[in-house]
């Protein structure tokens, strides 16, 4: 009997040791354990947005990332899933997804196997940076409804339950976008924004924002019910899950703390905030002075989206398209400019120095002036249009762009252009203002991440709890994105892998 007890104790000790050897206590952690057995079901067959860390428990860089990874997972619980794959135990997963160092972070999103082909996150590894980027990755399947369009909305996919959010915001919230993905094909989610909502709110007994009304499958506009529960993400998942006859993902009523689910105005504002809006329109660049001010030496952290026109007959169409693009991306850190160099010999020299493709009469590029890199939309993908621009800019925001180094010196462009004293002062102020930022970006560039750009990871939080994840917080360790452990058990800079 004594021998049996000793064996049991030893077995339990070994189990405890095995559990302790992993980075995450999955029984308590907001991070989801992913294995060779459950990865397909949980990640690949899902419509949810997943951030997946491929790690090795012995890796020092993985250990440094773990607190930020759990903090980000906790912050976005009910919005984005965060998973972990122990590659010591699941080497087949590391091989399948091309993992060459630890930690490697892959992003899975969208609906269908083609859409869910992963991209690699190579941004900063602070909780704030990860949260900011995760919010940007969530697809938006929410239908924007005008005041006279409710009947049409209910008729479309009438076999589904329908949910309408009345909101005083002018853009779709992160939480609602996430819900639209979670219940894609099971419930149709729409929203009516304040200007439109004011005209019909009395019909649906809406007295404050945000407010939800919902409809059973086949119901008409008079057959609605009001949701009066809390608006935190987990509660909303359960509300819609119950509406469609299921519980969404891992979130059940037991995961919600009733003491925190009061649905206060403060809680509502945390999840339905308004991102900062940028000015709509594309400014004209006519020479080196304006090109430097608007692109190469911007005072903010915006990426410059420049359209160089080499065929004057396309000038008006390009200007209109760029204005439309600036409207679509007015909540993103992008600044739009247009340069007509069709009759400008010195301007053409700049285009030639950048080796831009002029075959279609317009070249669309993204420039990161202070990081001295740029990328061009491939003209081989078709004529320039708003749709073509959207395709390119979505890749820019998603970090799926391969950048080239800018030439160390660019040819002078239209030296007759007059730079005002204000321009000079702004440029000098920009140099001072971005000195610290550039130093951080240089460190990031030196640590790896070549071939992609995670601009959004450097973006200031637009609202909500993300503000607590500020750089420099002693509880939010800063880890450079290029630092990885090699698969052979050594630590090295990921530049060696590229």
UniProtKB/TrEMBL annotation:
PROSITE patterns: THIOREDOXIN_1, THIOREDOXIN_2. Residues 420-429 have a biased composition (Acidic residues). It holds the Pfam family Thioredoxin. One of its GO terms (cellular component) is endoplasmic reticulum lumen. Residues 452-468, 481-498 have a biased composition (Basic and acidic residues). Residues 1-20 form the signal peptide. Gene3D superfamilies: Glutaredoxin. Keywords: Endoplasmic reticulum, Repeat, Signal. Residues 12-139 form the Thioredoxin domain. SUPFAM superfamilies: Thioredoxin-like. Coiled coil: none annotated. Residues 420-498 are annotated as: Disordered. One of its GO terms (biological process) is response to endoplasmic reticulum stress. One of its GO terms (molecular function) is protein-disulfide reductase activity. Participates in various redox reactions through the reversible oxidation of its active center dithiol to a disulfide and catalyzes dithiol-disulfide exchange reactions. Belongs to the protein disulfide isomerase family. PANTHER family: PROTEIN DISULFIDE-ISOMERASE A6 (PTHR45815:SF3). This is Thioredoxin domain-containing protein. It comes from Rhodosorus marinus.
